[in-house]
């Protein structure tokens, strides 16, 4: 018997029950009959509700939602009413350095060769050379050299350390090991160690930051890069030289 026949049978039994001669009051019979019809209507609505239909097993839906897992061979994995799988995001390709940064890395090696043949040091004073030698002894492996610009018009090690520790929440200050001035707030070509170089843990790269905007390197800054690389390589051997994208202006603008 289908669901509709069951509902009609239930209503007929209820009608005969309330029509029994013992119930002599017509008012009572009318109320009971209305109640029976109300119960039957509620049961009919519940049995045909979407939630009730979804709870029943549907072989067709199960067959359509069958997903074959390649790692399980021929065994299918069945998901009832399985949602469609979202496509996997493609891995982001690493950003290539800008032409200015690539040119800086290429010219740094030439500057180091020129500094190695120079008769004297012009930018790296003896006390800093001694500090570099002692500090490099704590490096577990040979680091690389990373070059970058501050992307500011002016600055020095003290101003960049103060800005990054106070406004950027970096306890060791500027994210660089050496700052090379451009004549604004620091002499042109002046090499200054930062708090990170003196207090931070050795990393896999020594970062040299040039004060100025991308593509602008003064002759004094170029010579300072060469001297610093020669000093580093005389202690730990030949270093790989890389360049990174310049910092957005908003990060260091307050340090000018």
Describe how the helices and strands are arranged.
Blueprint: H1 3-18, H2 26-47, H3 50-55, H4 59-64, E1 66-68, E2 76-78, H5 99-116, H6 126-136, E3 144-149, H7 157-167, E4 178-180, E5 191-193, H8 195-199, E6 205-210, H9 219-236, E7 241-243, H10 249-252
Parallel strand pairs: 3-6, 3-7, 4-6
Antiparallel strand pairs: 1-2, 4-5
Helix pairs in contact: 1-2, 5-9, 6-9
Gyration radius over CA: 40 Å
User: What is the count of helical runs?
Assistant: 10
Arrangement of strands in the largest sheet:
5-4-6-3-7
Distance between the termini: 88 Å
Taken in chain order, the helices and strands follow as HHHHEEHHEHEEHEHEH
Any idea how many domains?
2
Structural class: alpha/beta
**Can you tell me the CATH topology of the largest domain?**
Lysozyme-like
Let me know the CATH homologous superfamily of the largest domain: Peptidoglycan recognition protein-like
Please estimate the helix content.
40-55%
- In total, the number of strands is 7
Average pLDDT, rounded to a whole number, is: 74
Assign the CATH class of the largest domain: Alpha Beta
């Amino acid at each position: 018997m289908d669901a509709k026949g069951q509902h009609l049978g239930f209503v007929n039994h209820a009608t005969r029950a309330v029509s029994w001669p013992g119930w002599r009051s017509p008012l009572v019979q009318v109320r009971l009959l209305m109640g029976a019809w109300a119960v039957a209507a509620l049961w009919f609505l519940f049995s045909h509700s979407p939630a009730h239909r979804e709870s029943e097993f549907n072989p067709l839906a199960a067959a359509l939602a069958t997903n074959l897992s390649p790692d399980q061979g021929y065994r299918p994995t069945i998901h009832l009413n399985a949602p469609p799988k979202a496509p996997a995001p493609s891995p982001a390709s690493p950003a290539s350095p800008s032409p200015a940064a690539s040119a800086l890395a290429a010219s740094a090696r030439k500057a180091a060769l020129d500094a190695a043949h120079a008769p004297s040091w012009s930018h790296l004073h003896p006390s800093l050379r001694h500090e570099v030698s002692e500090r490099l002894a704590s490096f577990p492996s040979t680091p690389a050299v990373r070059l970058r610009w501050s992307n500011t018009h002016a600055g020095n090690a003290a101003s960049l350390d103060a800005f990054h520790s106070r406004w950027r929440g970096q306890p060791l200050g500027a994210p660089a090991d050496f700052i090379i001035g451009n004549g604004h707030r620091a002499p042109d070509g002046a090499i200054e160690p930062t708090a990170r170089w003196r207090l931070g843990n050795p990393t896999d790269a020594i970062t040299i930051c040039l004060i100025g905007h991308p593509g602008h390197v003064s002759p004094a800054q170029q010579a300072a890069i060469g001297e610093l690389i020669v000093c580093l390589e005389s202690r730990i051997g030949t270093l790989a030289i890389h360049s990174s994208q310049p910092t957005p202006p908003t990060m260091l603008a307050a340090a000018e």
